[in-house]
Design a protein that fits this description.
Layout (H helix, E strand, L loop, with lengths): L4 E9 L15 H10 L1 H7 L6 E5 L1 H9 L3 H4 L1 H6 L8 H11 L4 H5 L3 H7 L6 H15 L2 H6 L1 H9 L5 H15 L2 H10 L3 E4 L8 H5 L3 H5 L13 H19 L5 E2 L8 H9 L4 E5 H8 L11 E3 L2 E6 L1 H10 L5 H12 L10 E7 L12 H11 L5 E3 L2 H4 L5 E2 L20 H20 L5 H14 L2 H6 L9 H18 L22 E2 L23 E4 H4 L10 E8 L3 E8 L9 E7 L4 E6 L9 E4 L3 E6 L8 E10 L2 E6 L5 E4 L11
Parallel strand pairs: 1-2, 1-8, 1-9, 2-3, 4-5, 5-7, 6-10
Antiparallel strand pairs: 6-7, 11-12, 12-13, 13-14, 14-18, 15-16, 15-19, 17-18, 19-20, 19-21
């Protein structure tokens, strides 16, 4: 028999509900991904009509996309953009600049010459600020817009010296474009190329709403919040409201749900079944725990739990696209992905590989927003006789194995510790529980209209994103804004009950966080001995530090063995050290590629042999590297990236955010202290 394998992509599109109590979106990420990703992803697939995939659109995303019919009215960021810059307050000006400088430098800023000039400035005159605003929107404009929208094409060609009226024209054009997104999904679904699924209404962790005991059921070491309540009625409401919005949008009932964060348990599975949902999806860790068997060949079989088809994602293959191929040349990335799939082809023609990942956040780290990667990948797929892409609806008619139970967990670590356990996460839950208790006591006094408004705010406060950003496992420059949005929902509930909100709701839950949590700049010259071990604490005093373990707000597995990067320099050398757990990786059988971005070249070091170019490397408990400054010629600043490979396999790219910036002539005077 001819061997083959089915490949089922599921691209999850989600943003939390950024609307405040007045219905205005307080942060612009829905709009920005709308002009860059939500249209582009299905549009690229549509260039290859024989390929199939599934796209998940969350209800909060659908509703917010619809609001961009009136962009200046519905989005606080765009409303500020619509102002004459001379009329902005200093706070408004600062916040706009903060947003405009949140963009990825290497892939989105560098290609725009004028934005590259402006990016590192500390202050801006009015004309410079208009240019920064326009270029920011152009940087976020996706490949479809750049190739098909005359306003975007014209402004990209002009490049600088934009007027206020041109800025308004661009905002209007982009706002109009957002209204083409949902009809595209509808057309592709009607044509059978894609399945469109959805998620419980406000993207809640449904198993935790139903039963907080799921926290310890999934991981006994995770501490649950105190005095929990069940929001089982709300859980059902999330599913029913999502179904209603989906039908209003697409004219049919959804066949399947991607549970928020892949979070599942038996009780939430029953809700889906009772509501006529035919399939859900989650992570491989849930399958292995459910089967009590970690044999990977079991992963590629179709399964049913009771009457519910359940897809289990291949974690490693999904993460290759989400986190690792951004660093590879397109051809090498595609070849690697195909070679990873080929051994999975068997004589059992119903075997299927589920590749499920975020469909919006990875591409800003890819060149050209991932367009060359996807065009090459999809083109190769069309010529592979042993590979058949499928969407979820196509799988429902196939035979599947019986799954006797469904373990509790999510797609992150197979448990719920990302949303519970830390004191900040648990504090948020406890405030939610207390608000519910107070509301229940007042329920008899409330009108139907009050109850409806209160229910809306409870559902919004249950979004997984709020709990994601609490704690110290993820970092964002906008943590305070997320915290405020969560607490505002609870404050509004008390106001709707005509009660004074508790004082504790006006106090931030989140501790003051800054990038210093994961990036510390060098403070002084360093003179370490390169011996692969911490021979003296003092030899690295004054070094810079990047904490890779806290850097990303991702859903990936452990990114690699390196957990921290130390770095610094002196008069003649640049030093870098990688700290982490190297027991499972034989680095002496590998190589280290050192990329010098200013020269568009790399130096490859065979870690088992003599080092070239006077580079000194020692591998022990740590990996320590000394690079002579003569490597960098007359440069005053250098951007370095590192890629570790071992025995032909990719291990880790460092730093995780892009490049390590080293000021070669820094005198550290701004860091002196007494």
């Amino acid at each position: 028999m001819t061997q083959s394998i089915q490949l089922a992509f599921l691209w999850h599109m989600h943003q939390p509900d950024y609307r405040d109590s007045e219905g205005v979106m307080k942060m612009p990420w829905v709009f920005l991904h709308a002009i860059k990703d939500y249209y582009d992803m299905p549009w690229i697939l549509s260039q290859f009509p024989g390929l199939k995939a599934t796209f998940n659109l969350t209800p909060s995303l659908i509703e917010q996309i619809n609001l961009y019919k009136e962009p200046l009215k519905s989005d606080y960021f765009l409303a500020l953009m619509g102002k004459e810059v001379s009329q902005l307050t200093s706070d408004e000006r600062s916040w706009l600049i903060k947003i405009c400088k949140s963009v990825n430098f290497d892939t989105m800023v560098k290609p725009l010459a004028r934005m590259r000039e402006l990016f590192d400035q500390k202050s801006y005159n009015d004309s410079e600020l208009i240019d920064l605003q326009v270029l920011f929107l152009l940087a976020w404009s996706g490949n479809y817009l750049r190739g098909h929208n005359e306003v975007v094409k014209g402004m990209l060609a002009k490049g600088e010296a934009f007027s206020h009226d041109e800025k308004l024209t661009l905002i209007e054009a982009l706002g109009s474009f957002t209204q083409e997104i949902l009809p595209l999904y509808s057309r592709l679904q009607e044509g059978g190329q894609i399945t469109v699924s959805t998620t419980p209404y406000f993207h809640p962790i449904l198993p935790l709403l139903i039963d907080m005991d799921n926290v310890t059921a999934a991981n006994p070491h995770t501490k649950p919040p105190k005095n929990p309540l069940s929001f089982s009625n709300d859980a059902l409401m999330h599913v029913q409201r999502a179904k209603a919005l989906y039908k209003e949008t697409f004219g049919r009932d959804p066949s399947g749900f991607w549970p928020a964060e892949g979070a599942v348990d038996t009780k939430s599975a029953k809700i889906y079944q009772d509501e006529g949902i035919r399939w859900i999806a989650t992570d491989e860790a849930i399958l292995f725990r459910s089967l009590q068997n970690g044999e990977r060949s079991q992963l590629y079989k179709p399964y049913r739990y009771e009457n519910l088809f359940v897809a289990f994602r291949d974690h490693a293959l999904s993460d290759l696209i989400g986190f690792e191929y951004r660093y590879k040349e397109v051809g090498h990335a595609v070849d690697h992905f195909v070679s990873s799939l080929r051994p999975l082809a068997t004589d059992a023609h119903d075997d299927v590989v589920f590749v499920i990942l975020d469909g919006e956040n990875a591409w800003e780290y890819y060149d050209e927003n991932g367009y060359p990667f996807f065009m090459k990948l999809y083109e190769v797929f069309t010529h592979l006789p042993w590979l058949h892409t499928v969407n979820m609806d196509m799988l429902l008619s196939q035979e599947s194995r019986h799954l006797p139970t469904l373990s509790s967990g999510s797609w992150i670590g197979g448990d719920f510790s990302t949303w519970s356990g830390h004191k900040e996460k648990n504090r948020a839950w406890e405030l939610l529980f207390q608000t519910k208790r107070d509301c229940d006591q007042e329920e008899a006094k409330l009108s139907v209209q009050q109850k409806k408004a209160i229910a809306d705010h409870f559902l919004a406060a249950q979004c997984s994103d709020w709990f994601w950003w609490y704690g110290d496992d993820h970092f964002t420059d906008f943590a305070a804004e997320f915290d405020q949005l969560f607490r505002k929902h609870l404050i509004t509930i008390y106001q709707l009950m005509q009660m004074q909100p508790p004082a504790e709701l006006f106090k931030p839950i989140i501790e003051d966080k800054s990038s210093a949590l994961y990036i510390v700049k060098p403070q002084a010259p360093i003179y370490p001995k390169i011996d692969g071990r911490p021979s003296s604490f003092f030899e690295w005093i004054g070094c810079g530090m990047i904490d890779e373990s806290r850097l990303f707000s991702t859903m990936d597995r452990k990114r690699g063995p390196v957990e921290k990067i130390r770095y610094g320099h002196n008069e003649s050398m640049v030093y870098v050290a990688f700290d982490g757990d190297f027991e499972s990786v034989d680095l002496r059988k590998g190589q280290l590629d050192i990329f010098i971005e200013e020269f568009s070249r790399s130096v490859t070091v065979d870690l088992g042999n003599q080092q070239p170019h006077d580079i000194e490397i020692s591998i022990g408990k740590n990996v320590e590297i000394a690079l002579p400054k003569k490597l960098f010629g007359a440069l005053n600043q250098v951007h370095l990236r590192f890629e570790i490979n071992s025995e032909g396999s990719f291990i880790q790219a460092l730093p995780g955010f892009g490049a390590l910036e080293v000021e070669l002539n820094e005198d550290y005077s701004s860091n002196w202290f007494v």
